User: What shape does this take?
Amino acid sequence: MKKKLMILGAGAVQLYLLEAAQGLGYETVVCDMRPDMEASKRADHYYPVNYMDRAAILEIARKEHVDGVISNSEPAMLNVAYLCETLGLPGNSMESVETLLSKTKFRALQKKLGVFAPDYAMAASEEELLEAMRGMKYPVVIKPNESSGTRGTTKLSKYDEEAARAAFQTCREFSRNNLVSVEEYVEMAGLRVNDADVFVIGDEILWDGWLWEDRSKDAPMLPMTEIFPMALPEEHRRAIQDVVNRILRESGVRLGEFNVETYDTSDGDIFVIEINPRQAGNYIPQLIEEHTGVSLTKLLVSTAVGDMSYYEFLKTFQRECHYITCQVVFSKEDGIYEDLYIDPEIERYVKWKNILAHRGDAVSAGRNAAEAVAFVDLEFDSYETQHRFTDEIEGYIYPILQK
Assistant: This one.
């Protein structure tokens, strides 16, 4: 009998899940209000419902007798956990997922474990935010309590009541629970983040998804260049793994792919910025497969319905090592998009590109992940060639604006 997988959402990042599931011969059930989306059209069973409506999706899951539920939509991850918990399907508890989704609950977990974390507070009003800020060291960062993609994130170098009130309102609009968090800013030792998509299966944690993620000098909180492989000394890798493994185990998660962002502080501590209970964006699961040959998407889809065959296959699979870089292209200023410049010297390494902006579109200076104008994927012939280009990649690939 065919396995049946429910997917919450029909956007582009859900389409990869649908394709992997159908490639494995599973039936697919997609819930999304948008019938014109590709995943909606290609699903074996499509329901035009709001996937945030728990009663509706629970009724559908029961009706379809699904074997598993997944999503790549961060707002949907709590509902994925709700269905798995309610129906006894493979997955995680709502409490464990909420711990990772909430910025303040995540910081509280770090403090409990005794790993590095900044002082933080949560605010439900402007006055609560201002009161919390008075007792903090500056700079501070104000964030939506539950959101992604650096949306609304504001750094203040000194106490500024007017700027804080404006930041509160912006962050509350982006926050799914209408709460805002503030924390002391943690200085990076450089502009390089030690990133990973890790996979949890019970007590085991797979670390196939290591990468470096370089930030722009102009927007140091914005992910820009994804680099595979990450060539950290083994001792440093083990130290990061130890911290992340402790956090994941204490959170209570038991299954799935999790995006981990860490960096070294200026004092040499390992700072886990966040662990998202979903696959990373910026094509990272696809880039991991280009780099290693391991499909974490296939692993996610198959284990979600209790199929452990691909997991068993990976136990003996010899990992590959290709030199992959993906450049997330942002504009440095507001303007009108004209074209994407790719230097002829680097063009021969381009595998594929996805240009999001069209000639004549208004583009903004990159402030959050949603303002990317293009993605350019490159494969190099050696580590040395890769870093000769990627260390100065903004000079090789950039948007041209109309004058």
